[in-house]
Amino acid sequence: MQSNGRFSKLQLVEIENAISSIEKQETKKRRLEAEQLAALASALQRVFGRGRPRPESADRELAYRSLRLEVATALNDSEHNAERLLSVAYLSRECFATSLEALHAGHISSGHLRVIIDEGSPLSASEDTDEAERRRCYEREVITFAREETPNRLRPIARRIAAAYSQETLAERHEAALKRRCIRIVALDDGMADLIAHLPAEDAYAIKDRVAAIAKRTITVSGGAMVPSFGKQSPAPTTDVAASGVAPAHEAPNVDRRSRDEVRADVFRDLLLGRTFDPALVDVDVDVDADADAGSGSGAEAGAGADAGTKRGNNPHEWDQVRAHVQVVIPAHGVPELVGYGPIDTATAAGLAAGARAWERVSVDDAGRVIAVDRYRPSAEMTRLLIARDLHCRAPGCRVPAIRCDVDHTVDAALGGPTSTTNLAHLCRGHHTVKHHTDWEVTQEPGGVVKWTSPTGREYRDKPPSRVRFRRTSDEPTARGKRAESGSTATQGTPVSHHDEF
To answer: Compositional bias (Polar residues) spans (predicted)?
Structure first.
């Protein structure tokens, strides 16, 4: 490999051959997966006839168990996975046939199909005519995004579309789900265990964000001298280390050898158990601004009401100033959305909005493109517009929230690139480094579309996710005569976004 992560011509030929090969193999794999699902669906129909294979009698239950065991042994897999496969087979054939056809044609992957089925489950509980029509509308709408997005990016989109067509409102489902809040522990090998908290999404995302923010400051205190490990999540480097990925040659005596994930886990543990932080990890300069801008996305956020200035020393209460940061989008028409998760009910969105430190009014054109952002507090207008447009890192498939990303000049400012929304986009630190230090080429097309060209010449276009959220949806059959929950007081056609901190 040449310097700066660039490939030689011979290496590019080998990579091109490899990528072409796996593309062909992936197409064949998708066709075979679709054929496998169709075969299993046929077996289910033979045993149970049309309709769901419900265990309505002991005989049917035994027949289902027998078939499940047969599938598991044939695949040398667990019965749990076999049951999941049988469920996907049935639902893909009976409820989401168009998606199964798309898998067979190679247009989507089995991961996309599972997302479509999972998020469309509220629409597959009934077999009446109205429900079937709503399901077809959902599938027709979501499959267009499945062709362009990764399964992870597709999930919140599919969830929102399904919520719009569901007969049961999002608020009703959320109210029922709230009653299932719980904490459970799963014992694992090697002296480890998983602690799982089943919480409202806004609380879970706020907890994760605050833990990540404290962990980031902890890593900064340690000087970023963390040992890199190939094939695992890269440790958090300092600014000097970020570009090279190489740890300092002369490590400080208090070098922290933990990965990012280890630091986050330790912070989570210490917060819950009320432990004090390691003195070596809290000797840090913390700039706390009482009037910190909650939505600027230009650096670490500070807690409201804190004294301005620099604090330093071994004081665990300094971390109390770290606030969780979440972003909520409230369209004038449609379902409110927690960025990074998906749709939330109107009451929850209103509660978050009531305590928000800042609101933004986002104006869009008929195609859903963000054209202006107004805010009730003065701040960097351009940054606000970019956050509202991008929502997350603009590298293909990446979902790191925009508030945790760098604002990058698509064409380097040093090369004459303008500082304008047509030449700026959010990139996470990892993809920012890839853009500047490898042969990937990035250009920006009209409408905020970011085109990535790989070293082998393949092009991948990343469309602004805000266009998915802000576009006025089609007039399709809906539940209870509504296209979706609204509850927003925004002007017609004017979505509203706000940032909240906890």
So the answer is: 486-495
